[in-house]
# Entry
Amino acid sequence: SAVISQKPSRDICQRGTSLTIQCQVDSQVTMMFWYRQQPGQSLTLIATANQGSEATYESGFVIDKFPISRPNLTFSTLTVSNMSPEDSSIYLCSVEGTFSYEQYFGPGTRLTVT
Amino acid sequence: TQLLEQSPQFLSIQEGENLTVYCNSSSVFSSLQWYRQEPGEGPVLLVTVVTGGEVKKLKRLTFQFGDARKDSSLHITAAQPGDTGLYLCAGGREYGNKLVFGAGTILRVKS
# Structure
């Protein structure tokens, strides 16, 4: 399975600012995914990022609020823009495994907005 | 929308007890994954089942995929404190890469 790292691991940000989360994979992958998770709860998919094309967003998530970059096959960023306390959450990136139905996750970024 | 209902939501048991977590849907999934997540970490893939009726064992963990591929279960024998964590089931569709996640089961095993 791929080794995935995320930066930062956690951050405390002020309302109205933006934070960019980085996701780095140790091998080339086609599909990368960004999720949001409240502690102890399930995962909500934000968007799917395919290298060379625009990210595909799920219902309730928009590009202006969560712009995503996917410059190459090993890296992606998610920006949380104009943050409010409701954006406080854990943000996780994942990559597609050898089999398309398997995903491997990074350690997550814990974001607190004050 | 394909939904996965996971139960129980929370389970607190003594070391040595057995437990079962269930994942049910009215829809058919092409695959079913089980993940375990510890605080401060991302979910870790435990197993994938793809064939109706399939049973997989991972040490003290037994995973089963229903014959109709609409449900799955995770059974832990003689639970240990190290089994503590959030268990998530996730269903894969026949086409596409997205996973549908269950609500999760928080397991706490007390010594």
User: Anything to note?
Assistant: Chain A touches chain B at residues 1, 4, 31, 33, 39-43, 45, 48, 92, 94, 96-97, 99-108, 110 (CB under 8 Å). The mean pLDDT of chain A is 94. Residues 33 and 48 of chain A are 5 Å apart (CA to CA).
